[in-house]
Design goal:
By secondary structure, the chain is mainly alpha-helical. The protein has 23 helices and two strands.
């Protein structure tokens, strides 16, 4: 039998998978804590500098005359990161996301080569270790380096964690596990705001935010390797053992199964698929180009709207909480639409992206007036909700478009382009120098163009997932593609598309 038939026998989402998925999903809270840490740990309190100081005063003498008027503990108050040193707070945040970028690129192909479990556990272990280095950093330089390393582990481990949450269960549950992961991350942002409200000292907050990682590591040590990855590597016997273990834990002790021999992986064992296959493979090359732009646009619009939906005024803890809570309504919408045959993954994602883009364009037409119940800010928040939904779908959709042997590499490259969108987002508001509405034009056109481009991808709902690169050219897979080329009346156009 093939893998999907085997999951039907052992249980697509039995009690064993539920326990493992619960750990992987709740782990998103820990990752959200690390991602948002700099927001509160790097908070800048009100301060003033005494007048009349000698301009030639040394930096140490200047800092002695800095008075913080707000009772707040952060790296700013400990290392006096004000005036000419203020850039170091932003630098620490940038280093974290630079690490996330590196982690996405390195961990994806690595987990495709040596396995999901060792890469996942190694990344989680070192993220916890470097997280404590952040909390006890004796200097800013050590703090900044630890944030880079934590970001690298966070970005790579999060990628593998998401893939594991998909590969432990039957395909029909992929949308649910992927949506739960993203939803829990949003909840984690809100929980971090509550933690920061009660734990005000920055070192104690960093320690408290990092400590849950120890528990999650201990709970993950006994996880089995992904049966899908084992099967894709031609290790069918080991994949059978993992599946029988799942069956036993699910209460199906009498289960017997025999997987089809994955001859393609066995024969090509000396030449494992790698990241270069995303460029050289004709089917994957086109998918990767489209998906990279979709991921980039999702990130650009999401983070851009985060900055434009409202100012930073008010209670900082409420602001951080709303940053996560505003996303929650998007996920039930995703679960409903992407599993409907008349909508599916492709149409739903394209629709959410396009609607987010139109929300941005309409925002520039409606003035921001506090007296109106529906105003520009409301449209901006609606756009953020819609792009959050598209962001959630693109994770699930991308994992279904790539074969198992190269799934992490594909997700890693797409996630890398996503980080570039996040890096560019803060610079888009500077386009106001050309015209006040120019930033929303950029966000709007990015969302609409990404939505239209994503319609060129194939639908994956209720369709078999390729395990190897060879399956992309199999007759069965081609027949699936042929169902989507009904607009072409001549065989030459069909053959050209299939090639």
């Amino acid at each position: 039998m093939d893998l999907e038939e085997a999951f039907q026998v052992v249980g697509e989402f039995g009690i064993c998978q539920k326990r493992m998925i619960a750990v992987l999903v709740l782990l998103q809270i820990y990752m959200a804590f690390q991602s948002m840490l700099i927001v509160l740990v790097g908070a800048v309190p009100d301060y003033h500098i005494e007048k009349g100081l000698n301009p030639d005063s040394t930096e140490e003498e200047l800092f002695k005359h800095v008075t913080f008027t707000e009772d707040l503990s952060s790296i700013v108050t400990e290392w006096f990161l004000v005036k000419d040193q203020a850039y170091k707070v932003s630098l620490a945040g940038s280093l974290f996301f630079a690490g996330v970028l590196l982690g996405n690129v390195l961990f994806g192909p690595l987990s495709d080569k040596i396995g999901r479990k060792p890469v996942f556990l190694t990344g989680l272990f070192f993220e916890v270790l470097f997280g404590y280095a952040t909390a006890f950093a004796p200097s800013y330089e050590t703090f900044a380096l630890s944030r880079l390393l934590v970001g690298m582990m966070n970005g790579g481990m999060a990628l593998v964690c998401f893939v594991l949450s998909q590969e432990y269960v039957g395909k029909s549950y992929w949308a649910m596990t992927g949506t739960l992961s993203n939803m829990t991350f949003a909840v984690g942002i809100a929980l971090f705001a509550g933690l920061g409200y009660y734990v005000r000292h920055w070192r104690t907050l960093a320690t408290a935010a990092n400590s849950p990682g120890v528990l999650f590591f201990l709970l993950s040590v006994n996880f089995p390797e992904s049966p899908r990855w084992l099967y894709s590597q031609g290790r069918s016997e080991q994949a059978e053992q993992v599946l029988l273990y799942l069956a036993q834990q699910n209460g199906r002790d009498q289960t017997q199964l025999k997987l089809k021999q994955n001859s393609a992986s066995t024969q090509n064992g000396s030449r494992r698929p790698g990241i270069l296959n995303l460029i050289t493979h004709p089917v994957l090359r086109w998918r990767t180009v489209v998906l990279m732009y979709v991921w980039y646009a999702c990130s650009l619009v999401y983070y851009g709207l985060t900055m434009n939906a409202g100012g930073d005024t008010g209670n900082r803890y409420v602001t951080v909480a709303m940053y996560g809570l505003v996303e929650l309504p998007a996920y039930p919408l995703c679960i409903y639409f992407i599993n409907k045959p008349w909508a599916g993954r492709r149409k739903t994602m394209a629709s959410f992206l396009a609607l987010a883009g139109f929300s941005c364009l309409f925002t520039m037409l409606i003035p921001v007036q506090t007296g109106l119940g529906f105003n520009g800010t409301s449209l901006a928040l609606l756009g953020k909700l819609l792009v959050s939904a598209a962001f959630n779908i693109v994770y699930v959709y991308t994992s279904e478009l790539y074969p198992t042997v190269i799934r992490n590499a594909g997700l890693g490259v797409c996630s890398m382009s996503c980080r570039f969108g996040g890096i560019l987002a803060p610079f888009v508001p500077s386009l106001r120098a050309l015209h006040q509405s120019m930033p929303f034009v950029v966000f709007g056109l990015s969302g609409i163009s990404a939505g239209c481009l994503s319609l060129l991808l194939p639908e994956t709902l209720n369709r078999p997932i390729a395990e190897t690169l060879e399956e992309l050219h199999s007759p069965a897979y081609q027949r699936i593609l042929e169902r989507q080329v009904y607009l072409f009346e001549d065989d030459q156009s069909k053959d050209k598309l299939l090639q």
